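Below is one record:
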Amino acid sequence: MLILSAFSDHSINMQYHKAAFLGSERSKKAQIKLFDYTGFAMLTYTIKNIKNDFQPVGEEMLVGKMTRGEETMLFICDRDGYAKAQSKPLPISKGEEIYRKIISDGMSEFVGDIKTVT
């Protein structure tokens, strides 16, 4: 039983690292894309835990936004709403302008709850 337990921990650890590596590549692409629009983009999620299964964030690049008070933050998410990259807080008018530009450039909109680190 001890050997099986050690094997299971190793398998989970390998699965996590593989998901983190692939997810990191996807999130870096999203970060660069968002940076091109906003001049700043922070890497957020690289992996997601779905039913105790580590998975990389999805390949999809969907733009989402959150407004709080007088500021808006922009995100690039996967189809499950996991934010791969986020902007710094922007004045609402500037955030809306950039958001519309991203949409007009052909990126699809994410509609739903954004899962982010903020």
